[in-house]
Amino acid sequence: MLNRYPLWKNLVILAVVLFCALYALPNIYGEDHAVQVSATRGGEVTTQTLQQVESALQREGISPRGITFENDQILVRVNSDTEQLAARETLVKELGSQYIVALNLAPATPSWLDKIGGMPLKLGLDLRGGVHFLMEVDMNEALTKMHDQMLTTVRDRLIEERVRYLSVADNDGDLVVQLRTDEDFQRAVSLLRNQYQGYTTELDASTNTMRLVMTEAQLQEIRSNAIEQNITILRNRVDELGVAEPLIQRQGQDRIVVELPGVQDTARAKEILGATATLEFRFVDTKNDLRDALEGRVPFGSKLYNQRGGGQVLTEGRVILTGDHIVNASTSYDENGRPQVNINLDSAGGRLMSQATASRIGDPMATVFIEFVATGEKTPEGRIAFDRIEEVVSVATIQARLGSSFRITGVGGIQEAQNLALLLRAGALIAPIQIVEERTVGPSLGADNVRAGLTAILAGFVLVLLFMGIYYRKFGFVANLALLTNLVMIVGIMSLIPGATLTMPGMAGILLTVGMAVDANVIIFERIREELKEGRSPQQAISRGYENALTTIADANITTLITALILFAVGTGSIKGFAVTLGIGIATSMFTAITGTRAVINLTWGRQKRLTELSI
Amino acid sequence: MFEITKMDGDNPVKFMDYRKHTTWLSIVFAVIALTSLTINKLNWGLDFTGGTLVEVSFSQAADLPKLRDVLADNSFDDAVVQSYGTPQDVLVRIPPRDTAEAESIGEQLLTLLQAEIDSNIVMRRVEFVGPQVGDELAEAGALAILVAMICILAYVSFRFEWRLAMSAVAGLFQDVLMILGVFSLLQIEIDLTILAALLAVIGYSLNDSIVVADRIRENFRLLRKETPVSVFNISISQTMSRTLITSLTTLLVLVTLFFFGGPMIEGFSIAMIIGVVVGTYSSVFTRSTLALALGISRENLMPPEVEKEGEDQEVLL
Hints:
heterodimer, A: Multidrug efflux transporter AcrB transmembrane fold, Alpha-Beta Plaits, Gyrase A, domain 2, 4 domains, B: Multidrug efflux transporter AcrB transmembrane fold, 2 domains, 4-stranded antiparallel sheet, two-stranded parallel ribbon, 10 helices
């Protein structure tokens, strides 16, 4: 028979459609307001935490819709957004700083669907509201740190082996070692040449100069490491902000994308994410006179700092400890009611602190706060220049040998103390960052966009359905069936693909594929009409119509697919969303408009042996 | 049965007889578009120029003159204020500034408006694009369109023939030029969604011309006695009802998108609507005219003789 599909083919089509429909299903259940509890460093979510959460909510009179404990997270579903806020406040108080309590929207997917991986569509920031940051990492600073470290290493090595050098200096990224005599030069060469990975050695025997040049590979690695480390730290900080489902990823050479759904207070988010603060602890230099230093005679090895709130402090050159040894920091008030920051160190840090302070009880110790601040000027490469601002925030007398936990005072108000504690907990950025792009969408605009998009899709859809039904009559209804199936399939597949998000332009893309998906059917139906006019029998006309239209449809759609791919490759954010829906829409529309309609037409008309007329 | 047009292969309309006229029409429009592009330029949006944009919603209809005064008094005299969608919604744009505080202008502005005008103001949207990012986006956009055209040129050359490919791409140039011309004349802002629309139009318009080209190829093989011009006329006539219906359904959804989709998607729908209209014109006239001018003939579209591997061997079985 001309217009029959074998049973297996019909079954496969049905299976594909049902599969997509199944995964499109979660979208009709909507979302619950929820509070999400997860552990931060040092904390752990256990069944005990779960009990704690339950009893705290009960005490406050909040009756959750459901509490689940999965993947080291507790998810509390509540009935309204006011209850959600109340629940968060209660839990933050109850659980303390070792846990992250974030607001979230949890899909209300029934558990059987959830078990087979069913999830609703992920909405882009333009539809659900939130902040998108693009940050650029200042690599110069990361490189400078590496150069300084290398400088110290080389100097130490020469001193250790008693090689006398004229100078060891940084010259535009290269390390230049200048030696006095030929003999020293030979010894230095044998000591340093090819000893350091990532550096090549250039020699100039006539001037007794040796040059250590960083290799391109090493440079790349430093860049990569700086980005990776910054990403890790940003992730810690985002955790501190309490955001559910944040996205933090590298983009290109030296940029990082941060997306925070649901966050409205961008000022605070920026302050926390962009801060590059760290601490150093140094002994105050009591052997030399501060007044001499103020007149410009800073003793060799010592350092002069401004003190926050006025005045200057002279410190010893040696750094007792840097901020990377800090494992936890919290705030409280001291005996006099002033805010203080309590600091816990890792074991290595504790050892350093203990060794350094053992013989110095009674001496003053300064806490130096280091921050990178944008200067407002640009470097020759067109990037924002940063100033390294260092100031002493507190000077305290060492009362006893310090160990792995101690406290610092004099850091300002409680808000500043809390911010400092937060930054210390989350770690210091390896290199300063600059926000180069920000897009914030408020929740009201997001909701409006969803509403507008849905209305447009619905209205456009109904118009096309009406047109097709009137113009092609019964065949038009078959095409309409395909169009509906197409919509369900797009939604199902988009819900299934983990990376696919629906954006505002994406909704336009869906509507556009609705308009274009009928094209395939129009091509086929017009062909069938032509065949009928040429006097072929209805069955033959159907068969030839589909056959002749196939290559045309394929060619036409492949070119559209090419443009969708290109859009996906170059687009960002919402434009990528458009490309994704367009691409998926083209694929599904080919399936529904060609195979799907054929199956229905075959089932309806294909069996009629004496078919004399087609309703087309 | 309903028919949108009575024309078909048996009573073809002699479209190609008008090709001189349509060529002049195309040239006149191209000149107008180019003139406007040189004089008026394009109204590049924030995505490409960099700068800050804040959309706020007031509790009642916004007093724009007062808003402008407040902004001017607070060193935002370079701000451009316009209402957006509804009388309550206002869009404030600040051109890019060369200071480090550029990234916090949005917040400064919100605080200012809250303090000076309406404490119940609702933040709808804040966008900040640094100048370096804007340049990159513009570059990426131009590159995307160029790459799309090259890929399409390659694909159509591979599937059809270089004369058809060249004329298809020329048609795309016309589509893009017309859209940009209208955007320049009406000074509609170009943002990233317009870029998406341009590429979607490229896809759509190509779709159209491939359907026609496919029929031309088929007819060259079928109608051995007809001249190229009449093959073109017949092919265009045969595909005309499909061309019109698809344009119509696409326009239907685009018009609903324009009316219901909200202000953020307005530019996108306008660009697409122009694109669909021009794309339909270009796939009927521009491309056919050009392909004929390039001297397309039956021989160009004959399938190459392919020697199948193993064809000369006896079938074993």
